[in-house]
User: Fold this.
Amino acid sequence: MSEWTVSVTRDIAADSGAIYDLIADITRMGEWSPENTACTWKDGFDSPVVGAEWIGENVHGEFEWQTEGRVTEAERGQVFAFDAKVGDFVFSKWRYEFEPIDGGTRVTEHTLDLRPEEVKAMGPKMSGIEDRDARNRETMEATLAALALAAER
Assistant:
């Protein structure tokens, strides 16, 4: 997809399958992300297969909110992608791509903001985040840095 809103890349000195296993285990997302503090599989789901759904807990300063996620792609060592949603409203798409390189894996995290302008205008009141794209870039860089620390142990 060429119209990603934000993309961040990091080379990690670890096998693509091992890195995939870390990021696709959504119950561990709170270990990597500074904004998403926890994810819990919805009833009937317990692994990252296409269609699996979860509830995510998010925090920014004094603001707390929940979102839902649904896996849209899951190919170990290649791609893990999901929609972030509230009910049936998909407000963003997220994708992790894993490319083998000498000495490890190039990991690229993408996000696409699908919110209409009127919903974007409400964002700061709901999350305290004035510039969602800048915040996403910041948290994505932090997520990949934390992921690298764990994967490179």
Summary: The longest strand covers residues 63-75.
